[in-house]
Amino acid sequence: MFGKRSAAEKLPKGGKSADTALISDAEKGAAPQSVKPGAAEPNAGAFAGSPAASAGSSEEFILDRRSDEYYEIKTTVFNALIDTIDLAQLAQLDAASAREEIRDIVNEIFSIKNVVMSIAEQESLLQDICNDVLGYGPLEPLLSRDDISDIMVNGADRVFIEVNGKIQITPVRFRDNAQLMNICQRIVSQIGRRVDESSPICDARLPDGSRVNVIAPPLSLDGPTLTIRKFKKDKLKMKDMVNFGTITPEGATVLGIIGAVRCNVLISGGTGSGKTTLLNCLTSFIAEDERVVTCEDAAELQLQQPHVVRLETRPPNLEGQGEITMRDLVKNCLRMRPERIVVGEVRGPEAFDLLQAMNTGHDGSMGTLHANSPREALSRLESMITMGGYALPSKTIREMICGSIDIVVQTTRLRDGSRRIVNISEVLGMEGEVIITQDLFVFDIEGDDENGKVKGRHRSTGIARPAFWDRARYYNRERELAQALEAAEG
Ligand SMILES: Nc1ncnc2c1ncn2[C@@H]1O[C@H](COP(=O)(O)OP(=O)(O)O)[C@@H](O)[C@H]1O
Ligand SMILES: [Mg+2]
């Protein structure tokens, strides 16, 4: 049999497993409207809680319609199933075999529990359970919509989405927190993890690449909280950015040149401001014959070049072992003869290794970092290095930053939800202890229009010869650069 334990030996102990305990806690905690108070307790208790609910006991479930009873039976069968089946193994199967496995186990549970149902009813229950186990239940319609960038579930009856940069509530509801928890379980089991009271926080990924975070009770107070950053299959291109007003055509030309002539670039911005999307765009200017190694926490970048090695970090396993950090990856990268290194998000001591790489012949490396201005980005870089335990004088660290980073691009999500590139800045050098930067492009906000959209305009700051001019000339792009900068002056 496929289950990790046989249904018969597991069922009597169902109520004592952490799994069921958590689910019934969650049930008690919220969404009382979904369960008929009188009927729920005896059934749930008889099955999940009381020692009397052993295999072969004589309780009978009688089902006449899709009523509260139906859902109670479903919950009961579902909990028994979750307890019995090895979800991680189930995830390895294709949908049809997984369905067969579930069918076998559910039938076994039916007979152990003497569930009385017609064949048609059993079929529909099985169908429902399969959707819950193999799909993502009420999340499915949201997951299939391409216009949604984030899905935020705050307990069973509050589901928010982000569309076009704006957060809005949806009518989507889960039956109760137990169902939500089961779906969370289902999501994380695909990467061989569990969420329960003893490990209530988990990061995971959907098969389509979407990033998922789950935090469950008792840490989240109003039920399991699920956050999904949806993976966009068709990543925005530079021309989309121009169409959306994220950058002007001239600004896009300058960024293209920056990408092509192998400047070292840091993309700075807040969460969801479009850093990764912009990084992805910039990588499209990398030449086909360059060897690129990407390091990410969860692979999001989609490089089109033929010679790309993609690396991904690994969280520790349940025993706290086996973690591979971003720093491990970036260090290893250096032994892989990369021509460029692309780091999805710099957030810790790997900053040091990345800067070293940039300094030692891996020009054209790129990364994103969380900061609200180019200046802050540089000082965050400095503090990441300091906190990484390098006992270097701050002047030395700053010199290293100056020697490595050529360009900082700042992205912002404005209050109307639109994403803009608000600075393209160059790192020039040091004056005394201070890093000197200069803006090439800025976005000036001019107020709101009648629809509440932020009005503003991109302009170049009038610098005709940026510091990377020589690079541009080396790659024969200086004329194009001069034209774009001049055209954007205003
Ligand atoms: N310039 C843009 N215009 C409109 N939407 C954008 C833009 N850049 C990014 N997005 C969308 O915003 C969301 C977050 O983008 P992402 O690049 O992942 O942000 P970050 O890496 O800063 O957290 C994605 O859904 C993405 O498609
Ligand atoms: Mg990102």
Count of individual beta strands = 17
Enumerate how many helices there are, as a single number. 18
Backbone structural class: alpha/beta
Computed Rg: 27 Å
Task: Give an overview of the whole structure.
Strands 11-10-12-13-9-14-15-16-17 form a nine-stranded mixed β-sheet, with helices on both faces. The chain is elongated and about 80 Å long. It is an alpha/beta fold. It is built from 18 helices and 17 strands.
What tags apply to this protein structure?
alpha/beta, 9-stranded mixed β-sheet, 21% strand, binds adenosine-5'-diphosphate, binds magnesium ion
Please give a quick description of this structure.
This protein has helices at residues 7-10, 18-29, 37-49, 68-84, 87-90, 95-113, 119-134, 140-143, 177-189, 238-243, 249-260, 275-283, 326-333, 350-359, 374-387, 394-404, 469-474, 478-487; strands spanning 61-62, 115-116, 148-154, 159-163, 166-170, 201-205, 211-215, 225-229, 265-269, 292-296, 308-312, 340-343, 366-370, 407-413, 419-431, 434-448, 454-460. The chain is α/β, with parallel strands linked by helices and 490 residues long. The protein starts with 6 loop residues before the first helix and ends with a helix.
